[in-house]
Amino acid sequence: MKDEIKRDEAFVALQKIKETEKRAREMIENAREKEASRIIQDAFDKAKEIKETYLKKAREEAKKRGEAIVQKAAKEAEKIRKEAEEEGEALRGRAEEMIQEAIEKVADKIKDFLEGGLL
Fold first, then answer.
1. pLDDT value, residue 118
2. Residues with Cβ < 8 Å from 19, sequence gap 6 or more?
3. What pLDDT was estimated at residue 26?
4. Of 90, 85, 119, which is closest to residue 105 (Cα–Cα)?
5. What is d(CA 56, CA 52) in angstroms, rounded to the nearest whole number?
6. Of all helices (H) and strands (E), which one includes residue 13?
7. Rounded Cα gap, residues 35 and 41, in angstroms
8. DSSP label at residue 117
9. Cα separation, 1 vs 3, whole angstroms
């Protein structure tokens, strides 16, 4: 009988060990699942953070480039305006000379007409 009681106790102890091992495996599996979920979430959060950082940098760079393009265009427009103004001044100068010459020619013809009656 003592052997039977010892076997029963050993069997019960073995069952308890198996149940404990089963619970331990379940706890480990749950911990792994939670850890994997946490790792995935952390990776997602980090990827989002990196994306936002690079988007911010890209926006800043685009803004800088846009401002540089606008400044360059403004300088070019100012240069063209100055050139056009200089060209206008030169044309006005030539036109004044030509007008003066034309006035002198017309005056000479009027003088010739009045003096001699010939055109």
1. 55
2. none
3. 87
4. 119
5. 6
6. helix 2-116
7. 10
8. S
9. 5
Contacts of 113 (CB under 8 A, 6+ apart): 119
- SS3 category, 14: helix
pLDDT at site 37: 85
Token pair, residue 115, equals 């003096």
Gap between the Cα atoms of 72 and 81, Å rounded: 14
Amino acid at position 11, single letter: F
Which residue ranges in the chain fall short of pLDDT 70? 1-3, 5-6, 117-119
- d(Cα 119, Cα 103) in Å, to the nearest integer? 16
**CA pair distance 105, 114, nearest whole angstrom:** 14
CA distance 54 to 62: 12
